Amino acid sequence: MSRDRVLKLEGVHNFRDYGGYSVNGGGRLKRGLLWRSGQHHRATDADLAAISALNLASVFDLRSSHERTTEPCRRSEDFAAAIHLSDDPEQKRAAPHVAVAGEKRERTAESTHQGMVRNYARICFRPELQAMTRKMLAELAEGNGASLVNCMAGKDRTGIAVAMLHLAAGVHRDDVIEDYVLTNIAGDTEARIKAGLETIKAVSGTMSEEVLRVLMGVEPEYLESAFASIDEKHGSIDAYLAEALGADAALRERLRNTLIES
After folding, report:
1. Which end of the chain is more exposed for a tag (fewer CB within 10 A), N or C?
2. Which residues contact 5 (CB under 8 A, 6 or more apart)?
3. CATH number of domain containing 23
4. How many domains is the chain partitioned into structurally?
5. Is 57 helix (H, G, I), strand (E, B) or coil?
6. Cα separation of 148 and 35, whole Å?
7. What is the Cα gyration radius of the chain?
8. Rounded to the nearest 5 degrees, what angle is found at the Cα of 198, between the Cα atoms of 193 and 199?
9. Cα(235)–Cα(140) distance, integer angstroms
């Protein structure tokens, strides 16, 4: 099921369906309703037509205002989805992998990996990411139709938001991790890495291909770092969902009613 959930596009990377997983208590998330991706700045006309065919009702763009201004998403003329934008008070807060690339230290594959682990322990507490994830969960609970969540590369901030939706709906943690690491094989991975290189070079200069591949990939350890940090601060994922994201028992039940099929 991992490969048939990928929408193969030319200029938009990591575009895939994150539904279909079994949930606690029976049933599974519906397919064709939950989509995730990287940014759409380089979307081709063919890409726009394919995305339009999904009949999206809402888009949750997790990028900062600076990212959106620098690389605005292309949209088809008939694009009618409600677009929800992150309110980033710092204006230039970077994508997590770009932030790690810009750290002023010697970069090796191992130090970069550890930098990503440290970053994941923090990003789930970013106020703007929490606010957007809270909005996404509340909107999806209304059952208004298909949705898309994206950031720059569609792997870090999007990975956190998708993981929280999965956990709120009752997806097993092993499947949450499985969906997260699909970034490493979804679509044209070489084209995705090449696209990420341009942004990374702008903040950090030239780097080795080995380091670049660490920055543009994902590992289970990253998401586990976020989970461990949540447990430390909130006591449990369930408490974080309720306290930080507004996903209390009532909202989680509404999510299940709108997103799950038998």
Report:
1. C
2. 16, 17, 18, 19, 20, 31, 182
3. 3.90.190.10
4. 1
5. strand
6. 5
7. 17
8. 100
9. 26
For residue 6, give both structure tokens.
């990928």
Among 51, 34, 43, which residue's Cα sits nearest to residue 164? 34
pLDDT one-digit tens code per residue, 198-208: 777 766 666 78
DSSP state of 30: P
pLDDT digits (tens, 9 = 90+) for 203-239: 666 678 888 889 899 999 999 999 999 999 999 999 9
177-194 residues labelled b (16+ CB within 10 A) or e (exposed): bebbbbbeebbebeebbe
Rounded to an integer, what distance in angstroms lies between the CA atom of residue 94 and that of residue 199?
10
CA–CA gap between residue 168 and residue 179 (Å, rounded): 15
C-alpha to C-alpha distance for 179 and 9, rounded to whole angstroms: 19
Domain that holds residue 183: 16-261
Spatial distance between the Cα atoms of 89 and 163, rounded to a whole number of angstroms: 24
- Which pLDDT does position 203 carry in this prediction? 65
Q: Are 151 and 63 in contact (CB under 8 A)?
A: yes
Reading the block at residue 124, the tokens are: 């789930």
Is 10 part of a structural domain of the chain?
no
Phi, psi of 255 (to 5 degrees): -60, -45
Q: pTM for the full model?
A: 0.93
